[in-house]
From TrEMBL:
This is Disease resistance protein RPM1-like protein. Transmembrane segments: none annotated. Residues 10-152 form the Disease resistance R13L4/SHOC-2-like LRR domain. It comes from the Eukaryota.
Amino acid sequence: MKALLHLIVRVISKEEILDLDAVSSPPAHLKHLLLEGRLERLPPWIGSLQNLATLDLRSSHLKEDPLSSLEALPNLLSLCLIMVYVGEELCFRHGCFLKLNVLGISGIPKLNLIKIENGSMICIKKLYLKECPELKRIPEGMQYLTSLQELRLKDMSEELLQRIKAGGERVNLLHIPIIRHYNSTIKFSENIEIQAPVGDGDSSSRKVENEKKDAAENFLAVEVPLLPFRVVLNEDGAPEH
């Protein structure tokens, strides 16, 4: 157990609660962890995994913001949160998740606010948001993510999309080279270029490129080096490998 690097724990049925409190001494060298199933709380030892590089939490349905238990992980590179939380807000605090490269958030139906404080996720490169219908604005503090290369949205609210397209979030998103949206209902995908305000001389050169995609497209596929499996946020929120 002490030399274990990869660990996947899943419940057998959706009604079952994943109880990991009995694990008093988790593998000290663990690098990749996937927990799938309902949790009353995150195991108290999860914050002690100093070597953890990838963490995938699915169907946890936690009542409290899970980030406070994860933000101290010093070497976390990839964090995937699928149906992990039943609350309304997530907060990425200053000085936390300093090595994180990839973040995926999916299937949190009541989530209406994501806060990103200055000095958080300073190395983030890819951000994926999927099926959070109450999120009507981009995460607060996106302007601080100066290393972000790609923002991908799937089945998000029309209000959020229109704010981006109309330029309402222009100042907070201009630094991101790729912004992409996919609507699985009508099988429609588009690259979004930030629209300039009315009167901006560059507005004529800005455009939105639309293209039809195959029904099987899963553009929220997160592939992370060192991860022994492929994390896919697919059409129904279920995991694929």
